[in-house]
Amino acid sequence: MKYLPLFFLPVLALADGPKDNLADNVRPVPPIGIDVPEADVKALTQGLTELRAAIDAAVKAQSKNPKLADLLPDVEIFYKGVDWALKFKEIHKPAEIKSALETLAEGKLRAEQLKNGQSPWTTQKGLVVRGYRSKIDGSVQPYGLVIPDSYNGAATRLDVWCHGRGETLSELSFIDQRRKQTGNVAPANTIVLHPYGRYCCANKFAGEMDLLEALDHAKKFYHVDEDRTLVRGFSMGGAAAWQFAVNYSDKWCAANPGAGFSETPEFLNVFQTEDVTKVPWYEKTLWHWYNATDSAVNLFNTPTVAYSGEIDKQKQAADIMEKYLKAENIDLVHIIGPQTAHKIHPDSLIEIERRLADIAAVGRDRSPDEIHFATWFLRYNKMHWVAVNGLGESWKQARVDAKITGAKEVTVKTSNVTALSLDMPAGHCPFSVQEAPVVKIDGKELTVAKPKSDRSWLVHLRKQDGQWAVVASAQEEGKLTKHHGLSGPIDDAFMGSFLYVKPTGTALNDKVGAWSKAEMERAVFEWRRQFRGDAPAKADKDISEADMANNNLILWGDPQSNAVLAKIIAKLPIQWTQDKLIANGKTYDSKTHAPVLVYPNPLNPKRYVVINSSFTYREYDYLNNARQVAKLPDWAIVDFTQPKSTRTPGGISDAGFFGETWEWKK
């Protein structure tokens, strides 16, 4: 299979450097498209009507088809691509009008095939556009595949390729690319998966989940070799590859990041000439989420081949990773394209592919004897057979170094860890099923349970009164603690299924009500623009038990205007009345201040409630992907006597993180 030479590939829009450092002069992202001629609008509108009718007919005809839920998005993405491009003025050049007509035609063809119980695109070779329905917001999201001619249903290597920055990369233009362009890489006998990544967020937040959801969907139709799955990308996609390599190190056979950025502060200084010294302390703390440098040791577990052009400013990404890896006694393989700017040198690509093929021939080691793992919060808590269940303090580096040191012995060294599990799946424990192994952890020796007959092994350990002990479960029953899936900060609530809860009552204060209403409307608008979905929403009076069981609830308003918030306010760590707001021991005038926070839902502690916030980065941050990080921690007090801006929802009077039992921290 051939791939287009790099100089034929479309140039993706890049961040614009220092002129994008002006927070009071922010250009729209995505930009406003062209005016579509009236005749074309009419043709596209008619085509959408016909496609919608064809989809509805297919759904009716195949309502009892158990595969319908996984096949329907393969059709619906074509409708969404054209509908959104037309509705939201995201057709950016005349050629996209022709692409829209082609997209409608393919959508109609698939709808007719699906109506007849057929789905030939699922066995098609070459370029294939697929779609899935996201668990986060119910939206349909596209992804592209390159299926090699050699694919015959046997377990096959798969490379995930994360795309570069493209401010005009609507669903329509992405689908058109994936229908017509093989892309930067096409290794022999390899499936290549191109995630949309929720548009232009460097595969962060919902974009991070997009890659994982697209991969899971693809595995339902193609026999993907779990031990030969690689993550790759260039430019913004290189940044994505860095963060996936460190945060999901045990998932990949290898990682191949090219250019991009690997952390926020130095990159913004070098590439954007931006002064980040005045950034609030909590924002600097939150950089740890996506700073690959801060968890560089995790690449001990993932073979990594980095690439940079010799004269590319974004070579900085691999250079700084090389520095941090050197501190871990790891030497980074860094392929450098001679006298090359921001593109992949063809000779370098040959060398990269050779090295990755050698790694893939060996495959991923599912049960390594030695593990080194660093994390900063419990969103990322697992590395092979080690799972961290509790931290001494979130947002300080936690570390586990674990090694099989004998025929029935594991030695573990930890830092800032209070609970962990050693969990080897069936068939992967090397110890005898007849003898109890010994775990030596931080100098303490513990005799633990034997492996089971299927060669699985599971041990839970927790510090009790400062000493490690064997315990029965990963979490302490009945105790409210931070753990994986419930660790904060605010943005973590939007990594899973969420539901906006709209107030129907009268606000405590007019200013609070107006501010909250404006923030909710902005949140709906920006979720569509930046994460490419319609934020699911319900009125407070319509929230059901099922809604609370299945979703993080995003509560807009106050305890008087929002009925759900009224039910739980007494169990939240704030006091909020018409006259005052008390948070972390401080009292504020509730006529001019409001809280934003994330907290376990008192009505369902397995899920979050969030008050008056969506994702926390704003318009200024859209201009450079390295800025697209969480901007607010677990809680903040917003002063709306100060104007909201492209950076904040108002003045931030105070902000911080809750402790490990969701308590206030001074």
Automatic annotation (TrEMBL):
One Pfam match: Peptidase_S9
Gene3D superfamilies: alpha/beta hydrolase
PANTHER family in UniProt: BLL1128 PROTEIN (PTHR43037:SF1), UNNAMED PRODUCT-RELATED (PTHR43037)
Domain Peptidase S9 prolyl oligopeptidase catalytic positions: 210-344
Any one GO molecular function term: serine-type peptidase activity
Lineage of the organism: Bacteria, Pseudomonadati, Verrucomicrobiota, Verrucomicrobiia, Verrucomicrobiales
Keywords: Signal
Protein name: Peptidase S9 prolyl oligopeptidase catalytic domain-containing protein
Record InterPro entries: AB_hydrolase_fold, Peptidase_S9_cat, Plant_Biomass_Hydrol_Est
Signal as UniProt keyword: yes
Record-level GO BP terms: proteolysis
Keyword match Secreted: no
Native species: Prosthecobacter dejongeii
